[in-house]
Write a structure and sequence with these properties.
By secondary structure, this protein is an alpha+beta fold. It has 16 helices and 12 strands. 42% of the residues lie in helices and 19% in strands. Strands 8, 9, 10, 11 and 12 form a 5-stranded antiparallel sheet that branches. The radius of gyration is 24 Å and the shape is globular.
Length: 392
């Protein structure tokens, strides 16, 4: 998909059309999640700090992200993909590999199918997508990025080497600002240069990754499209305008993250038993801690309790980012919506079931009345008074 988050925001609010739009956090401490093509002309890119993006494009309009909305639109996009082949491997909410080998007798060749998908996405969702058609995953990925937005690049079976050879080395997966100068210092400027390089020299520079890079540069990529690839983790994190300096402030963010993660787990019928907490300090040092739970969980209270316990393992100091994720995921839908029941349930099992019911109620209220549902512990004292509530 082309500038997916920004494109969804512009589609939903036509007043943004034709204007430079940045989706992300606050102007001081946030990160750009997506930039419209109007904004990209001035230099902003995803993963850039919002402060830097605003220096490059001070006229940009900053829109806070709506992850639930993007997930909803993503499901519609993937439903279109699956009309043409069941072999869909999602890489993220806005990108996927499709194997259409067995679909050609129904829909035509790869180019015809790609055009049909792009047409359906535009007609039904009002969004544009770019596609690459090629014999392998790596080449298709490279091709899909070349003519954005609304692009289509076809690489025939016999044309892979000629297609890859002139492209700059930055088109290779994993070659970024740190690796590219080292390769260029050796005279390796294009994918063709990488393809003709001595594999042993690449191994000495890049380690075990070097041989893989050599193969990809020659168009050798035997990986299959893996449909229904399960998510490895579900998480949420946030960068803050002001550093968090107290344990209480950090705990509040962990509770908010745990609540977001729990709702996403509920929607996906997943549970997990490995809780991970991430903190990034004011000096940009990143630290993570994890704990394995005896049984999979999917409710806010269980996730937050584990995360709060992990907080004691971190060094004190001003924190600019916090995050919580859950891995070791299992499908809860196949066993009727929860872990296998024990013959004799203990008090902890009963409490966990109660916690799960709370998540279901929160989700139901949110679906009916919007995203304004939150826990009392996450309300500032002034907000509590404004709402006319007393909390204990």
């Amino acid at each position: 998909m082309d500038a997916f988050y920004a494109s969804v925001e512009i589609r939903d609010d036509p007043r943004l059309a034709g204007k430079p739009v940045l989706v992300g956090g606050s102007k001081r401490r946030g990160v750009v999640l997506a930039a419209s093509y109007e904004a990209r002309k001035f230099g902003p890119r995803s993963a850039m700090s919002m402060a830097e993006a605003m220096r490059l494009c001070p006229q940009a309009l900053v829109v806070p992200p709506r992850h639930e909305r993007y997930a909803e639109v993503s499901r519609s996009v993937f439903a279109i993909f699956e009309r043409y082949t069941p072999l869909v491997e999602g890489l993220s909410v806005d990108e996927a590999f499709l194997d259409v080998t067995e679909s050609r007798s129904l829909f035509g060749d790869g180019e015809t199918i790609a055009r049909a998908i792009k047409r359906d996405v535009k007609a039904e969702l009002g969004l544009t997508a770019s596609a690459g058609v090629a014999p392998s995953k790596f080449v298709a990925k490279v091709a899909s990025d070349l003519r954005k937005p609304d692009g289509l690049v076809v690489v025939p079976d016999g044309g892979v080497a000629a297609f890859l050879a002139p492209l700059p080395i930055e088109r290779m997966w994993g070659v970024g600002p740190k690796t590219a100068p080292r390769l260029r210092a050796l005279g390796l400027n294009t994918l063709g240069d990488l393809a003709s390089a001595d594999p042993r020299a690449l191994d000495s520079m890049l380690g075990s990754w070097g041989r893989h890079v050599h193969d990809l540069a020659r168009g050798i990529d035997a990986r299959d499209v893996e449909p229904d690839r399960a998510a490895k983790s579900v998480g949420h994190e946030e960068t803050y305008e002001e550093d968090l300096v107290t344990a209480a402030a950090i705990e509040r963010t962990l509770l908010r993250h745990a609540s977001r993660v729990a709702q996403r787990l509920l929607e996906a019928s997943l549970a997990g038993n490995v809780v991970v907490v991430k903190l990034k300090y004011a000096d940009f040092t990143l630290r993570t801690r994890r704990i394995s739970l005896p049984e999979p969980v999917s409710d806010t209270t269980s996730i937050f309790t584990a995360a709060r316990g992990l907080l004691r393992e971190f060094d004190p100091g001003p924190v600019r980012l916090t995050g919580v994720s859950l891995s070791g995921l299992v499908d809860t839908a196949s066993d009727g919506g929860g872990a296998q029941r024990k013959l004799f349930e203990d008090e902890q099992d009963v409490r966990r079931e109660q916690f799960q019911r709370v998540e279901e109620v929160v989700r139901a209220i949110g679906q009916r009345f919007g995203e304004g549902v939150t826990r009392a512990a996450l309300l500032d004292q002034d907000e509590k008074l404004a709402r006319g509530r007393k909390t204990r």
